[in-house]
Design goal:
A 4-stranded antiparallel β-sheet has the order 3-5-1-8, with no helix packed on it. Helix content is 11%, strand content 48%. It is mostly beta strands. It has a single domain, classed as Sandwich (Immunoglobulin-like), CATH 2.60.40.
Length: 141
Amino acid sequence: MKTLLCLLALMLVGAAAPKQQDPGPLRFTYVDVYVDSGRAALAAWQARLVDPSGRALIVGVEGGEDAAFAEPPYHDPAALQGGEIVLAAFHTGHAGPAGRTRVARLHLAVRGDAPVDFTTTLEVAASDAGRLPEATLTLAR
């Protein structure tokens, strides 16, 4: 009898528990990472990107559009397949790009159709003359 009551209680708790919705099919997309350094030539940058929804898996990291940042930025390979990554790159050669430039592209596997809204932090940006506190980070598809 006690076992039957326990099973009944478990069934009722299971029936009352909210069902998790299936977020939908897996789709592949990308997001471009831009740094705007204003008039200064960008020499170094570091950014943190986080997917608070947990639906995006980062499956690849590609470099930027300017020769100064054409190689993929430094990152922890263990961060791939997760929803948070820190990216960083620096350039010591010719003058880097000024203004808004694509510094990286993240390839993503995303569950569901809703867009992924990453929270972003530009942790540091610098020119060959020093830190660029006015620099901004944006994402685009």
